[in-house]
Design brief:
Layout: H1 2-10, H2 21-39, H3 48-70, H4 74-101, H5 108-135, H6 140-156, H7 161-177, H8 181-197, H9 208-235, H10 239-257, H11 262-280, E1 314-318, E2 323-327, E3 335-340, E4 355-361, H12 363-370, H13 384-391, E5 394-397, E6 400-403, H14 406-409, E7 412-415
Antiparallel strand pairs: 1-2, 2-3, 3-4, 4-7, 5-6
């Protein structure tokens, strides 16, 4: 008993209310007892003041549990969150019954909107609880259950793509732990697509600095996913797709940060190693029957790049001094342009002996060159007008490629074409 009292004395008070841990737990239990009583009433009701107080209590539970974790009171934090989750469950029950009892709010969409508030409070505590389960207790089974509930709520309240993507990637790692590799790949690809499409949700009021921070976080997350996918492919001995993941990661970070960046170097080293293995054991790198990233168009056997692209459109044609192929790709993958020498037979534009090389452009820089505006602008790279703006500023003479616009050239990440040095 003395030891327990000594431990209680060491538990920090809540920074917000200055209540001791013991007193704050009592306060929380009093609230869920009251909510349980209200929920059993035939005509439940909550005043605006009640709702404000409950909102404050839930946020204090979240903040206080984080404070306790930092002070290494893990079980106390877990107990507090468990209490908070009971409160949110009763709060959600009462809120739902109040909304349903209101004849003016029988519309399903209105009811859905009203439930977003209590669900967002529960989501706050579920995320804090997941942090303890996965990072402190290594409880993967309950982490999976907790995370399923998080994802369900995020879908219901239409959370941002960024937050949903984070949850999906966590789920991918849990599936990996249980050696369910196909499910891990599925969740990882869902997360990748959500991170990339987060660009369409940019806050109109955000400034350039805030957008750069978000872009950096997304690039880091997409890079982590590509590395994660590569590990799965290596386990499954799918070396072709593993190489594609490393190559995607390399070009993504090369375009953002250049050759001296540690992440760029990581992917470059991984890519070099796997390419060396490809030379030693080419049979291992034969294409699988189904490529994980839905490769578009046709594989170019003479190309130095084996990047897999999301999408299903391959733009092909003939410019004034060269023929070209341009596969669609997602926003966080490079813009790829394959260049071919113009031959005598116009019906055989893409013969291997005519292939000159690939150009990879960073899409963020290319967007500035094309003056693309709006939020969801990835598809705009592939309009006839913008493709023409790129193609007319490239010229091929005697197999040597030149850029006619220095701003377009500055968007270039890499080239396997022979280029004019001027």
């Amino acid at each position: 008993m003395i030891n327990k009292e000594k431990k209680d004395d060491k538990i920090p008070k809540s920074l917000k209310s200055q209540n001791t841990y013991k007193d704050f737990i009592k306060i929380c239990r009093a609230y869920y007892d009251e909510l349980m009583h209200i929920s059993k009433n035939g005509t439940p009701s909550l005043s605006k003041k009640d709702i404000t107080i409950l909102n404050d209590i839930i946020h204090e539970i979240s903040n206080y549990s984080d404070q306790l974790l930092k002070a290494n009171f893990i079980q106390e934090a877990k107990k507090l969150l468990d209490t908070g989750l009971v409160i949110t469950d009763f709060f959600l029950k009462v809120f739902g019954e109040i909304s349903e009892s209101n004849k003016n709010d029988t519309n399903e969409n209105k009811l859905s909107d009203k439930l977003k508030f209590p669900l967002s409070l529960k989501l706050l505590l579920l995320k804090a609880n997941f942090n303890i389960l996965i990072n402190y207790e290594n409880d993967y089974e309950n982490s999976e259950k907790n995370l399923n509930e998080i994802i369900e709520i995020q879908l219901y309240i239409k959370s941002s793509n960024y937050h949903l993507a984070s949850s999906k990637f966590h789920m991918a790692k849990i599936k990996f732990f249980f050696k369910n590799y196909d499910e891990a790949k599925k969740y990882a690809l869902d997360a990748k697509n959500l991170f990339e499409s987060n660009n369409s949700e940019k806050n109109k009021n955000s400034n350039q600095k805030e957008e750069e921070i978000i872009e950096k976080k997304i690039t880091q997350n997409v890079s982590n996913i590509l590395s994660f996918l590569a590990q799965i492919f290596l386990i499954q001995k799918d070396y072709k797709n593993a190489a594609s993941c490393y190559e995607n990661g390399y070009y993504l970070n090369l375009g953002r940060y250049g050759t001296e960046n540690s992440t760029t170097e990581y992917f470059k080293n991984k890519l070099d190693l796997i390419n060396e293995d490809q030379k030693k054991h080419p049979v291992l790198f034969q294409p699988k029957t189904q490529m994980i990233m839905n490769q578009t168009g046709q594989n170019n056997s003479t190309s130095n790049s084996n990047i897999n692209y999301i999408g299903n459109i391959l733009h092909k044609g003939k410019a004034e001094t060269f023929s070209f192929k341009i596969p669609t790709s997602s926003l966080y993958e490079p813009f790829l342009l394959s260049i071919y020498r113009i031959g005598e037979d116009d019906n055989n534009r893409y013969a291997s002996e005519l292939f000159l090389g690939n150009l990879c452009f960073d899409k963020q820089k290319l967007a500035k060159y094309l003056k693309l505006r709006g939020t969801n602008y990835n598809s705009m790279f592939y309009t006839d007008e913008n493709l023409n703006n790129i193609l007319v500023n490239i010229k091929v003479v005697n197999g040597i490629l030149s850029f006619l616009d220095k701003n377009l050239k500055s968007s270039l990440i890499s080239s396997s074409c022979s280029m004019n040095k001027k």
